[in-house]
Amino acid sequence: MKRFPTFILPLLALGLLVFSCGKEQPDTADEVPQEVIRKISAMGFNPDGIEKVEDGYRIERDIIITEEHLKGAQVDVDVPNVEQYRTFNTVVTGGNRTVTVYIPQGGSNGFSSTYVSALDEAISRYNAENLDLGFQRVTSSSGADIVFSRLSKRDERRGVLGSAGFPSGGDPYGQIRMSGILQSTYGLGVNGIATIMAHEMGHCIGFRHTDWFDRSISCGGSPSNEGQSTTGVGAVHIPGTPTGANPASDLSWMLSCTDGGNRPFTNNDKTALGWMYVNNY
Predict the structure, then answer these.
(1) Predicted local confidence at residue 227, as pLDDT
(2) Domain coordinates in residue numbering, the chain
(3) What was the pLDDT predicted at 84?
(4) Are 51 and 58 in contact (CB under 8 A)?
(5) How far apart are CA 60 and CA 51, in angstroms?
(6) Spatial separation of the C-alpha atoms in residues 172 and 185, rounded to whole Å
(7) pLDDT category, 72, cuts 50, 70, 90?
(8) What is the pTM of this model?
(9) Which helix (H) or strand (E) holds 164?
(10) CATH number at 6-277
(11) DSSP helix/strand/coil, 213
């Protein structure tokens, strides 16, 4: 999830922090082959600011597109401007599935106890919904379905907060990379970090950004469309969720940008989660 634009940083002392997936051109832009950019565009995503990262290619500073996703399924869908969205790929639950999650603690590549508590809080938010899909933190990365790891120091310095990808083969995306300086540098507590973690976990199980069609809804600035993605990954409306996306009245956990505060599931979020993972997949 997100980065905060450099022009926001001087305002931190005034409490006006906004976490955003900005469109600043990355230093690694020349390393991205034109063929990959064409494929990202063909999938329906906006390729502006695309970056080559270890897991594949990162767009919007938040979403990982793997080589597998680049192959793309040629499926068309009509996507209106409505509230909640999923990808074509979801997690197969078989009616009852527990997704195990590991987060390393301590050391230069691990996280503080605050992050561990934040992950426990994010997990409890999902499990409280009594979905067919639950989460459990485990103490070993061996066999874990989702493994947290630190972003590179370069990404942390640039303000990237986290990133994750979408499901494939019926399984959740297996890696969430998180900034390790959310507490020390930006002053976030357990609930703020838990909100970011829950957001990235949402991507791992198949959720798109609530306001993908106009990121200015939560990020401010000029209107910006992430891309409909009618082929490949997809941006499919979830039935029962309302039109529009209003961060003032409905602070969805899957909005593109956050102010770093606590953002538990709203009623609309719960509707989307229930449609996705109660007696469906």
Answers:
(1) 65
(2) 6-277
(3) 72
(4) yes
(5) 9
(6) 30
(7) low
(8) 0.75
(9) strand 162-165
(10) 3.40.390.10
(11) coil
